[in-house]
Protein: Probable electron transfer flavoprotein subunit alpha
Organism: Kwoniella dejecticola CBS 10117
Amino acid sequence: MLLRAALRTSRLSSLASAQRRLASSLVFLEHKNGKLNDSSLNAVTAAQTLGSDTAGIVVGSKSDVDGVLEEVKKIDGLTKIYTAASDDYAHALAENVAPLLASVLPAKNISHLFAAHTAVGKNVFPRLAGILDSSMIADIVALESSGDVFTRPIYAGNAILKIKSSPKDAIKIVTVRTTAFDKAKTGGGSATVEEVEAKSGDSTTKYVSEELTISSRPDLSSASRVVSGGRALKSQENFNKILDPLADALGAAVGASRAAVDAGYADNSLQVGQTGKVVAPELYVAAGISGAIQHLAGMKESKLIVAINKDADAPIFQVADVGLVADLFEAVPELTKKIESAKA
Ligand code: FAD
């Protein structure tokens, strides 16, 4: 009796591990101008939690795919890189890329497809999930190694939801909150490359042009230091005159509250929060930001939060590690001067 139970348990566990071995993950590797978007490295780490084979897929114009290929082949832990090169896939237009992924995945025995929860991931993956009639599992901060339980924040990060994906979903379509996973290491990988048939899309959606905000500062989403300003800055000129020098002194990216963006003081791409970017830098300086929950949703995981606000009761002080009750128009330039002279 005991022996039969033991045999059954061992058969079940070997079945489970065989199923795990069969599972394999694919990471959608984002790139621009022949350079890998760093956020994809966080998605690779999330995929590797499953302990199964992990491959990557690069989709884009021929020149973009060729440009990024050497870099992605070296990502540690990726065994294979699939490529699909065609002008139809340039600029990651969801209308063209999602049908391509939908046609490639079933033949490759993929159990999980991951992407970073970036503008591209948020655009392509829900469309793909729709085509595959699968659930969209968005913005996860953790996953269990079984591969069917995922954790994601909801209500601007005020509650944490655990989702068990439906067994009917043959392929789990998952986007990853990049700040929740370390970046996969690069340099040690030696993935093989397999070209997949890149069918021409019949989409009526065409790329026309884009306007880019060029900045010499670090990218806001991945910067290790961020200096953000709020409505209290009162104008775009003040943003540039008061915040930029502090950001320059710290080698930081500049961010903004939605109120500052809505008032036209800062570009939309700089918004931090529930409807903006989610950041978790080593240092986050909030100047003249009240600390509304929607703003906190985008920065409260920062390692060290410094708040400058003239209202001692401002909610931002509840999450701040260092609080300065002061007028930012005096405090920020003084702080900048001190940092510059300490560096000299
Ligand atoms: P305010 O709330 O007006 O705060 C200004 C602060 O500056 C005050 O605390 C004041 O004491 C201080 N201050 C004034 N003068 C000075 C001075 N001279 N020196 C120092 N301090 C001074 N907000 C976001 O930021 N990101 C989001 O992604 C976002 N998404 C949203 C989504 C939804 C659905 C909704 C409803 C709202 C969202 N908001 C978001 C808006 C959010 O609720 C707040 O309105 C916004 O964050 C306030 O911005 P603020 O702190 O700059 O402005």
Q: What stands out?
A: The pocket of flavin-adenine dinucleotide is lined by residues 230-232, 257-260, 271-276, 288-290, 292, 294-295, 298, 308-311, 314, 327-329 (CB under 6 Å). The longest helix spans residues 2-22. The longest strand covers residues 53-60.
